[in-house]
Structures are given as structure tokens and as C-alpha cells.
Amino acid sequence: MRVAQCKQAGLFLCGTFAVPAQSLYAEGRQAGANGTKPVKVAPKMSVPAETDPSSSPAMPAPTQAVRVWDLPTRLFHWLLALTLIGSVVSAKIGGNAMVWHFRFGYLVLGLLAFRVLWGLVGGRWSRFSSFIFAPAALLRYLRGKPRPGERFDIGHSPLGALSVFALLALLAVQVGTGLIGDDEIANIGPLNRFVAVDTGLAATGWHKSWGQWLLLGAIGLHVAAIVVYQLRRVDLLRPMWHGDKSLPASTPASADGLAQRMLALLLAAACAGGVAWLVAMP
């Protein structure tokens, strides 16, 4: 039935293609008119174009373990966390535990001094230059629209960088006010003798009120952010423990060899010596 209908319409079926019969035998009739044997010419069939590889979705780049956080940065992070816990607990206990509160404060001062130096000469992703972002970059991060080539998932993100700088600043102020403070009872900072009485009292007032609560609030936000990221299946804890993240193979790694660790050890010793000299100034 289909063949008959197509013949009536002047079409010839070839596979799944219907082509005009006159075009199918055009060359054959022309050859017969010339006295040669008619030749049946096959219809021209369209061939589907090959798929352009560039139009297909890009395959994700292969990933591998990349060292992001060097050992000195990780030790700083966890030592600071433990020191802050000890400082808060000893302050709440009071009494004889205040001796340890001062010691924890000296350790925090040494750690802060080390982090500032390590932020200049440490591993690639521990340097301040790797996580100082412009306000526009922060907005792009919050909107989830980074520019091509921007990687906010390697070291500190723009929001994480703000948290780091805020914590460092609050810790520096808290340690500084403790060094010059005087509670007029039994606790006097080792540098209190270098400031006026009113200055020492004001420093103690800040240390026990605004300074304490602002610092605890910043620490609470830091911990809450880690929990939120964990719930979103973004692990921030394990990379800070073993140092590596699963990233594209082209990602530059932080130097974390013996030379860098020896340099960190020398800097840590210098910071410890500087703190010891500071608190024992005559």
C-alpha cells in the first residue's frame, strides 16, 4: 500500500528515505537518449554530521591528594585550640589556676607571633597573600559566582579569611590587655608597670568583659561554620589534621619538606625566646 501510494505521488522508497522518482532515474534516461545503456543511479542520501567533541559536556579533571596545610600551620592550629581551652578553663576556676592562665596567655602570644611570621614565609596556602581578598571577591563567593580560574575551595575561602583575621586580631587585643592589666586584687600583668594606673584598669575591664565575650563569640561562629560545612559534606577538619585535600592535579601544593619544617622550628624558638624576654623585662 505504501509503495503504491508513493508511486502515485511520484516518489520512490529507498530504505527509510522517499525520494522523487524522476530525480532517481534522471541520469539513466539521459544516458538512454545518448544511445548508451541506461544506468540506475542510487539516490543521494544525507549522512548525519559527526558530533563536535567541543560541544559535549567537559569531563571533570582528575583529582589527587594535594598538600594544602603544611605541618607548622596544622600544629599552630591545634596548639592554639588547646591553649584557648586551657586559658578559658583556668580563668573560670580562678584562684591558684590563674598562674596557668598567665602561662596559657604567654603561649598564645608566642603562637600569634609565629603565625604572623609564618604568614609571610610559610607554605603557599598558609601565606596571607593567598587569602587576602577584595570585597568584590567576597561578594562573588557569597553569590556562588566565582570568576574563571578563581578557586575558593583550596585554602581559606573569603569568608574563612575574615574569620581568621578577626580571631587573630581579637586574640592580640586580649593578650595585650592581659599583659598590662591589673585587677586590683592579686593578678597584675607583667607589663603593667609600663602604663598608667587608669590604663591598666581599663585594660582589665576590657579583658574581663567585651574582650572575653567577643573572642568567645568569634570562636563559637568559627566552630558553627565548621559544623555547617560538615553537614554540607565539605570536610574542613581532616585536611587540617593530615594536610591534604582532594583537588585537581594541576593545583599548586604548599611546600612542606624538611627545610620548611626546620625554618618553622627556628621561628618558633625565636618567638618563644622573645616572649620570655618580654614578660621578664626588668
Structure description:
The chain contains eleven helices and four strands, in the order αββααβαααααααβα. Helix 5 (98-121) packs across helix 11 and helix 8 (197-208) runs parallel beside helix 9. The protein has two domains: 2-43, no CATH class; 63-279, Fumarate Reductase Cytochrome B subunit, CATH 1.20.950. Strand 1 and strand 2 form a beta hairpin. The protein is mainly α and 282 residues long. It is globular, with a radius of gyration of 37 Å. The chain has helices at residues 2-8, 21-24, 26-33, 71-93, 98-121, 135-143, 158-180, 197-208, 210-231, 237-242, 258-279; strands at residues 11-14, 17-20, 63-67, 244-248. The longest helix has 24 residues, at 98-121.
Layout: helices, strands, pairs:
Blueprint: H1 2-8, E1 11-14, E2 17-20, H2 21-24, H3 26-33, E3 63-67, H4 71-93, H5 98-121, H6 135-143, H7 158-180, H8 197-208, H9 210-231, H10 237-242, E4 244-248, H11 258-279
Helix pairs in contact: 4-5, 5-7, 5-11, 7-8, 7-9, 8-9
